[in-house]
């Protein structure tokens, strides 16, 4: 009897073990399907592509007249100093391959062409690595005019080489649509590329989160941030006062200075946690966007602010971008109908999605 009972208990234990194993295998297969079956963040990466590209293009064109002094052979950071610095850091720069003026002009204008191709999404799979190399070389050519936005752009562009940046709002997507191309999600190649894409997206999100949390933790250690006076002293730096009268209105308000100082620390430290919940994610994105708009307005760091806001938009869901697109289309059609004196009396017509919504979580 004892042997029979022990045998029955053993059989039950084995059966429970098999059920547990089947359950774990099912969850593992479900996770694998989610990772390799759907490419997430296509809209956010498209915004990243366009935003980064426009910021770079603005840099190249605004400083076009002074390009030879800033990055060329006439720079105070001479080609000799550049080569010595690159050798010491064991890195490289395309701009250091030759000291001649014509070579610099070719590389600089090629850089502009690559950026334009990146913005419009033309052959992005090949253009993105080229852009990553050019941005790295550009920053290494003149490291003294960098800021935090340039650093995060360098890192994100490396990850972006493995992501599909042209899935939305690009010439590549339009070309594939005209050819009638349909993805083959069951093919091994498509799944491997999808895993790389989702991994690269995750790396970008983690990089931005770590950046914010690290910046917040470093602020916590500062005495002025602990006392709530850091914003007061920062806004009084003359080099960062595009509008002195506006800065004065802020730093003379004790309540605004104290609240702004502590809020900046709190949002940055808590940023990774805020991104885990849909409601807190919206609040966190609104907070950091407002913070960067303030940095751009009160401190004149417009490039840094635009790069960081563009990076933050990776956390916005694809469904949100789709809804925003439908609102823009409805507004555009309404404006056109008003101009043409349409028969609808100027009442906007609801725009139905032309295709089913694709769930895209960051």
Give your account of this protein's structure.
This protein has a domain at 39-182. 72% of the residues lie in helices and 0% in strands. Residues 343-362 have low confidence and may be disordered. With 362 residues, the chain is mainly α. The chain has helices at 2-37, 42-62, 67-70, 79-89, 101-120, 124-141, 148-160, 171-179, 188-221, 223-227, 230-234, 244-251, 254-274, 278-299, 302-312, 318-340.
Q: Helix coverage percent of residues?
A: over 70%
Radius of gyration: 26 Å
Mean pLDDT: 86
N-to-C CA distance:
59 Å
Strand content is under 5%
Broad structural category: mainly alpha
Low-confidence parts, pLDDT < 50 over ≥5 residues?
A: 343-362
Largest sheet: none
Order of helices and strands: HHHHHHHHHHHHHHHH
Which shape, going by the Cα principal axes?
globular
- The beta-strand count equals 0
Q: What's the tally of helices? A: 16
């Amino acid at each position: 009897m004892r042997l029979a009972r022990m045998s029955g208990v053993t059989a039950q234990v084995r059966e429970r073990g098999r059920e547990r194993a089947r359950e774990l295998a099912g969850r593992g297969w479900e996770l694998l399907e989610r990772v390799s079956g759907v490419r997430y963040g296509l809209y956010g990466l498209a915004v990243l592509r366009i935003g980064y590209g426009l910021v770079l293009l603005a840099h190249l064109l605004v400083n076009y007249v002074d390009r030879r002094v800033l990055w060329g052979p006439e720079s105070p950071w001479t080609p000799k100093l550049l080569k010595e610095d690159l050798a010491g850091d064991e890195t490289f720069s395309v701009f250091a391959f030759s000291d001649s003026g014509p070579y610099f002009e070719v590389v600089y204008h090629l850089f502009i062409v690559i950026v334009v191709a990146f913005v419009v999404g033309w052959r992005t799979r090949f253009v993105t690595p080229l852009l990553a190399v050019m941005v790295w070389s550009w920053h290494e050519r003149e490291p003294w005019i960098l800021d935090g936005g340039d650093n995060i752009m360098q890192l994100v562009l490396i990850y972006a080489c493995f992501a599909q940046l042209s899935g939305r709002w690009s010439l590549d997507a339009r070309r594939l649509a005209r050819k009638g191309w349909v993805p083959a999600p069951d093919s091994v190649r498509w799944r491997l590329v999808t895993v790389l894409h989702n991994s690269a997206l995750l790396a970008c999100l983690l990089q931005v989160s770590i950046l914010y949390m690290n910046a917040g933790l470093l602020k916590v250690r500062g005495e002025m941030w602990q006392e709530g006076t850091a914003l007061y002293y920062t806004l009084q730096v003359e080099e960062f006062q595009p509008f002195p009268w506006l800065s004065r209105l802020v730093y003379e308000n004790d309540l605004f200075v104290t609240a702004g100082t502590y809020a900046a620390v709190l949002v940055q430290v808590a940023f990774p946690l805020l991104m885990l919940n849909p409601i807190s994610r919206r609040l966190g994105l609104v907070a950091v966007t407002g913070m960067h708009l303030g940095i751009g307005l009160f401190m004149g760091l417009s490039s840094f602010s635009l790069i960081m806001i563009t990076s933050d938009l990776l956390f916005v869901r694809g469904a949100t971008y789709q809804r925003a697109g439908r609102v823009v289309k409805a507004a555009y059609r309404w404006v056109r109908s008003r101009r043409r004196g349409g028969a609808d009396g100027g009442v906007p017509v609801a725009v139905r999605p032309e295709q089913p919504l694709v769930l895209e979580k960051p």
